[in-house]
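User: Once you have settled down, look closely at the record that follows, taking as long as you need, and be ready to discuss the fold:
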Amino acid sequence: MGFSKLVESWPVVRQFREGDPLGLGRAVRSERSRTLTPRIDEADQVAHSICPYCAVGCAQLVYVKDGEVVQIEGDPASPVSRGRLCPKGAASQNYVQSPLREYKVKYRRPYGNAWEELPLDEAMDMIVDRVVGTREENWQTENEQGDPVRRTLAIGNLGGATLDNEENYLIKKLMTALGVVQVENQARI
């Protein structure tokens, strides 16, 4: 490429030659930027969803190709988030497809130094036995003043930000029915 061709390829020269001194038009586009295509260009379908992380309810557009999520973006039609997502919401594709995602129940026994896989039914039975046992051992019918309280202070619940509003509602109902008073959600901390 000769020197004159090199100079003509410079964006500043094209800006003045094409009457675009502020560099807001075609003159400043490179060949690479002219040939770029959006990541969502090849998606087969777009699913409307809600971000799973907190109770704000930011709307998402989930782009799917061949049954796999290829991109997640904020939905500009949403009156809640107006197309914006926080860093967790923008990275929620990893929630679905992360190579670190666990698909088996993992358990580390007391004083153990390794995780082992458990069948889901066995893990659920262990949890139920522990919750029911702890509740029975620490149940308070009344406080020191004789007022009825019907509660246990030995169990607390901390929910995660990946739970949606409906799941948190049901967990709160369950904890209240069990007499648990310490119920919190990580999204509020």
